[in-house]
Amino acid sequence: MAEWYLNEGKDNDVVLSTKACIVRNIKGYNFMPRLDDKDCQSLLDTVDGAIDKSVYSGGCAADFDKNTVLKLTRLQILGREANQMSNPDRKAFYYNDDASLSISVGSGEHLTVKAMAQGHDISVYKKAEKEALELEKKLDVAYSENYGFLTSNVRLAGTGLKILYTVALPAISKTEGGIAALTQRVGQYEWMIYPFAESGELADSGVYIIASVNTLGVTEDDVLRRGEMLISDVIKAERACREEIVSSKKEQTSDIYGRSFGTLRYAGLISRSEALQALGWIRLYHDYDDSGEIDLSWNTVDKLTMDILWEPGAPSRKNSQSMNLQRSRAQGIRNILKGDDRL
Amino acid sequence: MRCERCGKELTNRIIKINGITYCENCARMMGYDRFLRDPSDIMGNPFAPLDQIASSLMQMSELDFGNSTLTCPKCGMTLREFENEGRVGCIECYNTFNDNIIREMFKQQGNSEYAGRLPAQSAETDVTTEDVPQIKKSAKTEKAVVETGVQEKAADKKDIGSETENPEEKEPVKGKLSLDQLMKADLGMLSDEELEAGIKVAADAEEYRLASRLRDELKGRKDGGSNG
């Protein structure tokens, strides 16, 4: 089955992915920071016994080889942070066929159920909830009437739910005051927006994450409704800014679009930042290109963007600038543009 | 920013005591009146009694380190560790550090009441992804940009969520906001008139939680709260 992010989602000119994460903890065990190794092993075994092996692959992270770690990072099951794979014998990861649904054990909380979809697709919540319900029936989860589902990170206590939209906003980023105004708007919905960047990494990709904040005082339905209203606003705003930029500077944007495609298609060495900048311009002008000379689907633009954003080891700027990495990145991009897969 | 005690939006004076942000009303109720005075009252007065200054510093010092030895009997986590890491060690910590946890929650959410689903019960939601219409290349961009507010930095906060097909909702009657607008509005920014009208709108729509929030906001103002 095709990996989840290769599917064609709605509004994928702006929304790269929609994710729903539900965290849970199990009664009888201390939370992760205070869980000793013996109890941790018992937790891993308990969860392993509750997971439907006909749906999920994976297991204890200590058993993963290097290629599996790279693959799971690209599939966005593992984060890009170096510490994701620290203490692998205290963590486990399970994922379904297309990796759109995963269960992490020991990453911050006992359980993190994550559903992901390409583009704008809030059905991810139901998918994550279905799996969370199964686990709640099989395991005795930590819950109180006052606080809801109890978590180690008290800011997640309550619904334990986070909805995240990863959005590419090249036009709003290039509009003076655009991100500041958007941040204000997102705050009015009591959500948050932050650039897609790890610490030590330049936030110059034009890609942002819009995430829910509240887990108390709101129902799951409130969070989803608010999120859908917000993302709809963001999509409209980004498209309007693209229209504004292109209509006021058609010749210049057309020129940069062509140059950006040329860079991606023919570069022998390319930095992460340069590749993402080029993809930003391509995204901005893509729907306005009437030359018929560049044949590039939104799916390809999205795949390239996500491949580069989720490059393992990307947060280390020193590594990302090395010649070998620049060469392999450029080769990977050329392959995708030729219709091949880099993996 | 919200008051970390009552959760109300801070629109007026902000008082920070030992790293905790209070509205003026709560600061008074907590007995921190001395912090509400202008510092020049004490420091600018060459005749200010030294013991008054020393007394203030001593009290601040006591507040800083009070309770830091509180320890969870089950996992051994201390209050200081919780405050540093923002994480608790076990379920029992929720009882041990109850007040501090509620404060931490207020910092982010402004509410600490659970409203979500029960374990093993599905949440009632029918939210689906609606198509967001594409902008035609020749569309009147200016209108769309203003509607979505990105290029209108000083956009009136009451306009949020105005992308509705109903023209009556797009331009609400003065003093009366739609349900959607009320749900997303910063209550501190609404007038008394809008709050009163909003309570009726929320009650008519059986959104009782919203109606009670509006009522509390209005009541807070009438009771003399200045940061509501």
Task: Provide tags for this entry.
heterodimer; A: 343 residues; alpha+beta; Creatine Kinase, Chain A, domain 2; 2 domains; 8-stranded antiparallel beta sheet; two-stranded antiparallel sheet; 11 helices; 10 strands; 16% strand; B: 228 residues; mainly alpha; 2 strands; globular
What does this structure look like?
The complex is a heterodimer of chains A (343) and B (228). Chain A has helices spanning 37-50, 66-74, 124-138, 170-174, 178-188, 220-248, 250-266, 272-285, 298-309, 317-320, 323-337, and strands at residues 15-24, 57-60, 92-95, 101-105, 111-118, 143-144, 148-149, 161-168, 191-195, 207-212. Chain A is α+β, with helices and mostly antiparallel strands. Chain A has two domains: 4-241, Glutamine synthetase/guanido kinase, catalytic domain (Creatine Kinase, Chain A, domain 2, 2-Layer Sandwich), CATH 3.30.590.10; 249-339, no CATH class. In chain A, the strands form two sheets. An eight-stranded antiparallel β-sheet of chain A has the order 2-3-4-5-1-8-10-9, covered by helices on one side. Chain B is mainly alpha-helical and 228 residues long. Chain B contains twelve helices and two strands, in the order E-E-H-H-H-H-H-H-H-H-H-H-H-H. Chain B has helices spanning 24-29, 33-36, 39-43, 50-65, 79-85, 93-96, 98-109, 141-148, 167-170, 179-184, 192-204, 208-222, and strands at residues 14-17, 20-23. In chain B, helix 11 runs antiparallel to helix 12 (208-222). The longest helix of chain B has 16 residues, at 50-65. Mean pLDDT of chain B is 66; it is low at 39-50, 57-66, 138-148 and 151-174. Chains A and B meet through helix 3, strand 6, strand 7, helix 5 and helix 6 of A and helix 7, helix 8 and helix 10 of B.
